[in-house]
Amino acid sequence: MNRKKLASVLLGSATAAALLLTPETAASAQAGAASSNAATAAAKAAPAKAATASARAAVERDSVKCSKPGGKWANYSWGEGNTTVTIYFNNHCSHKVSTKIAFERKGSVGDKVTKYRCMTVNARTKGKKKFYAAAYKPYSVIRVARCS
């Protein structure tokens, strides 16, 4: 048997994969060798879809009303990571908007420890800003006259 054929046989077989797995899961890997490639691809895609759905659910949003033009908003959304928080913004106002973002300590029940970070956004822009917030998560956006 030549090298290419041997490699394809070894890579395609479930026994080669079973050698890499722990003894408890080796038997289940050999039993699963009869399933088709489409079923395997669908099984791999299912956790990825669930992960993106949970990530979408974790996004929070808040808005600040513009002083001009009337009826427009500066929109903010965020999703928290392990040690950082990225704030996404879309300012529909015709002027700069300064906001104070309130960060609350994660896991605090009785004592609400809050930190504030200020952010100024130019008129009619959108973008993102990353904040280091290891033990804190954002929970609201408050409009201020200016960041000091």
Which descriptors would you attach to this protein?
148 residues; alpha+beta; three-stranded antiparallel sheet; 4 helices; 37% strand
Question: What secondary-structure arrangement, pairings included, does this model have?
Answer:
Elements lengths: L2 H10 L1 H7 L2 H9 L5 H21 L2 E6 L7 E8 L3 E8 L5 E9 L8 E8 L4 E7 L3 E9 L4
Antiparallel strand pairs: 1-2, 2-3, 3-6, 4-5, 4-7
Helix pairs in contact: 2-3
In short:
The chain has 148 residues and is an alpha+beta fold.
Describe this structure in words.
With 148 residues, this protein is α+β, with helices and mostly antiparallel strands. The chain folds into two domains: 3-57, no CATH class; 60-144, Immunoglobulin-like. It contains four helices and seven strands; from the N terminus they run H-H-H-H-E-E-E-E-E-E-E. It has helices at residues 3-12, 14-20, 23-31, 37-57, and strands at residues 60-65, 73-80, 84-91, 97-105, 114-121, 126-132, 136-144. The strands form two sheets. It has a four-stranded antiparallel β-sheet, with no helix packed on it. Strands 5-4-7 form a three-stranded antiparallel β-sheet, with no helix packed on it. A hairpin with an 8-residue loop joins strand 4 and strand 5. The longest helix has 21 residues, at 37-57. The protein starts with a helix and ends with a strand. The model is unreliable at 6-11, 13-46 and 48-55 (pLDDT under 50).
